[in-house]
């Protein structure tokens, strides 16, 4: 409980905000938690850890943020050859996504 209270102290979740943000930024805690594994940001490690712990303790209502950005997902598809031209366009086989 002490750790959770300390984490809540680093997140602004009250007032006129529609979503909780990392104190001193306009970055939402839920977005950082969703992207933390896939992308870097100009945040301190402590800020990122606080956002992740906050999102675990207070799950976001509604549709969750994706854990990968569209750009990262499209890059992974391209690396897997999903957009490669096929000689037989009529016989396109599905390709595995890593």
Polypeptide structure, described:
This protein has a two-stranded antiparallel sheet. Helix content is 38%, strand content 4%. The model has no long low-confidence stretch (mean pLDDT 77). The chain has one domain. The chain has helices spanning 2-8, 29-35, 45-57, 70-79, and strands at 11-12, 21-22.
Mean pLDDT: 77
Query: Can you tell me the overall shape?
Result: elongated
Q: Work out the strand percent.
A: under 5%
Helix run count:
4
Q: What's the total number of strands?
A: 2
As residue ranges, the low-confidence spans are none
Query: Class by helix and strand content?
Result: mainly alpha
Radius of gyration: 19 Å
> What's the helix-strand series?
HEEHHH
Instruction: Characterize the main sheet.
Output: 2 strands, antiparallel
Number of domains: 1
The rounded distance between the terminal residues' Cα atoms is 39 Å
Order of strands, widest sheet:
1-2
Helical proportion, percent range: 25-40%
TL;DR?
With 98 residues, the protein is mainly alpha-helical. The protein has helices spanning 2-8, 29-35, 45-57, 70-79, and strands spanning 11-12, 21-22.
List the main descriptive attributes of the protein structure presented here.
two-stranded antiparallel ribbon; mainly alpha; 98 residues; 4 helices; 4% strand
Q: What's the structural blueprint in terms of helices and strands?
A:
Layout: H1 2-8, E1 11-12, E2 21-22, H2 29-35, H3 45-57, H4 70-79
Antiparallel strand pairs: 1-2
